[in-house]
Amino acid sequence: MNLLAEGRAIPAYLAQELDVTQEWVKNRLHELTRLGLVRRRYRGLYELDVD
Questions:
Q1: 20-44: string of b/e by CB count within 10 Å (b at 16+)?
Q2: C-beta separation of 33 from 45 below 8 A
């Protein structure tokens, strides 16, 4: 969440920065999107949902 607070990001970048797999990041982003905490802006680009 801290990385997304800095701006939009793709799963590959988040995985690299967090030293985890892209699959792990994608699963977490899916869950965070479902909870309304993160928004998918474009294909593969995510940001915090601040609305």
A1: eeeeebbebbeebeeeeebbeeeee
A2: no
Q: CA geometry: angle at 28 spanning 7 and 3, to 5°?
A: 25
Is the CB of residue 29 less than 8 Å from the CB of residue 38?
Answer: yes
Look at the pTM and tell me if it is higher than 0.90.
Answer: no
Q: Which pLDDT tens digit goes with each residue over 1-51? A: 788 888 899 999 999 999 999 999 999 999 999 999 999 988 889 999 877
Which residues contact residue 24 at a Cβ distance below 8 angstroms, ignoring those fewer than 6 apart? 15
